[in-house]
Specification:
Largest sheet: 2 strands, antiparallel
Number of strands: 2
Order of helices and strands: HHHHHEHHEH
Helix content: 40-55%
Strand content: under 5%
Number of domains: 2
Number of helices: 8
Strand order of the largest sheet: 1-2
Distance between the termini: 37 Å
Shape: elongated
Oligomer: single chain
Length: 232
């Protein structure tokens, strides 16, 4: 894995690096709890958790590029697939050794630096992959609903009309869907949540927003002007 995609900001890179440090720390703590000679199966399971923790951080940042329009949804998929394969190999080379000093089996194809296809499929069955797919689905819906606009140096912001009809017949919608309905960015949706205008349910990356609250925001200028949080 040769660095990060060029579109990744310093903040995005830092988020992934922080996840790597935490994941490695959690892995070592978990392994130590199994004694001085952990079995290969123990290392295997702990390493899967570690890899997917880092993948989740990368995938979220990749999806942010998709939501902003800098990447098409297929580019998000390509970058995330490649990161998962590359990082799993790196993690296994560094940490994938059992208590007898033997590399855990079924991760890396013999005499190569390529991930076993079966292992990749198994990683994609884990909850972290489902969370990423949920985010990518939101991007696909967003990019399918908004006609492309031409970005120029003099016009870096796009004006999108509110589409409250997208909330019809629904109780709750995703963050991306909410932004599309209000004609604002997903960052604005986050600001509404921060200032108490919206009360989302669920965890980060899977938060849902009440359509009744979103419809209230379409009735006035507040839909265009969420309160900015003061920096301390």
């Amino acid at each position: 894995m040769a660095g990060y995609p060029e579109n990744f900001t310093r903040k995005a890179k830092a988020a992934v690096e922080a996840a790597k440090i935490r994941a490695r720390k959690n892995f070592k703590t978990d392994i130590r709890s199994h004694g001085n000679k952990p079995h290969a199966s123990t290392v295997d399971q702990s390493l899967r958790k570690s890899v997917m923790m880092v993948f989740s951080a990368f995938a979220h940042e990749a999806c942010e590029l998709g939501r902003s329009g800098k990447w098409d949804v297929d580019e998000v998929a390509r970058q995330c697939d490649q990161f998962l394969r590359d990082y799993a190999v790196i993690a296994c080379q560094e940490l994938g050794w059992d208590g007898d000093g033997q590399r855990i089996p079924n991760w890396i194809i013999l005499n190569t630096n390529h991930l076993e296809a079966a292992l990749e499929r198994e990683l994609k069955e884990l909850p972290e992959w489902d969370d990423y797919e949920g985010e990518r689905l939101g991007i696909a819906d967003l990019q399918a609903s908004v006609p492309p606009t031409l970005d120029t140096k003099s016009q870096t912001r796009r004006t999108v009309e509110a589409r409250p009809e997208l909330l019809k017949g629904k109780d709750e919608v995703t963050r991306t869907h909410a932004a599309l309905a209000l004609g604002v960015t997903t960052r604005s949706i986050d600001r509404y949540a921060a200032d108490g205008s919206l009360h989302p349910s669920g965890r980060h990356g899977k938060r849902m927003f009440k359509c009744s609250e979103l419809l209230e925001l379409t009735k006035g200028p507040k839909a265009r002007r969420p309160k900015r949080q003061k920096r301390h």
